[in-house]
Design a protein that fits this description.
The protein starts with 17 loop residues before the first strand and ends with a strand. A hairpin with a 2-residue loop joins β4 and β5. The protein is mainly β. It has a single domain, classed as Methylamine Dehydrogenase, Chain H, CATH 2.130.10. The strands form four sheets. It has a four-stranded antiparallel sheet, with no helix packed on it. It has a four-stranded antiparallel sheet with strand order 7-8-9-10, with no helix packed on it. Strands 11-12-13 form a three-stranded antiparallel sheet, with no helix packed on it.
């Protein structure tokens, strides 16, 4: 079964996932669920962590309980006191050792979210001035030794 997320126009923010069963004799997948993200908002990244589905959009980050479909939280530049340089999220990953969330952005570098840190240090933005290869981050992965690899427009960090 493949997870397929569809977006419907007309609603400014999602409130609940809806389960849809699709039967097709020629297609070997179905729509698991869909939710609305708002007109002109694009979903670019998904990551499941426990019961949370992290959704990276062109207008910020959504945390959704993928079991119940309830919206847990919406994160934008404004809601995190501008500690994200861009609301446009290209990629998401979670550090398997620490549980820290990482978001790659469109022209805003790499964003770290550590909910266990004190409030003023939960969000941090890494830019080329911090050693990142470029402002555009397209992929984040972790090697077996715990190293984080970041794929950018201009190379790997």
């Amino acid at each position: 079964m493949m997870l397929v997320v569809g977006c419907k126009p007309g609603v400014s923010s999602p409130s609940r996932l809806e389960l849809h069963e699709v039967a097709s004799p020629t297609v070997d997948y179905g729509v698991y669920s869909s939710f609305e993200t708002g007109v002109g908002t694009y979903v670019r990244a998904l990551k499941i962590e426990g019961e949370t589905l992290w959704v990276g959009t062109s207008r910020g980050i959504l945390a959704v309980n993928h079991q119940s479909g309830d919206l847990i939280q919406t994160y934008t530049r404004a809601s995190v006191n501008n500690r994200m340089a861009s609301d446009y999220i290209f990629t998401i990953n979670v550090d398997p050792r620490s549980g820290v969330k990482w978001f790659g952005t469109n022209n805003g570098g790499l964003v770290r979210y550590d909910p266990s840190a004190p409030a003023e240090r939960q969000w941090f933005n890494f830019l080329p001035v911090n050693g990142l290869a470029d402002f555009w981050v397209y992929n984040i992965d972790f090697s077996s030794d715990g190293a984080m690899w970041v794929g950018t427009w201009d190379g790997v960090s």
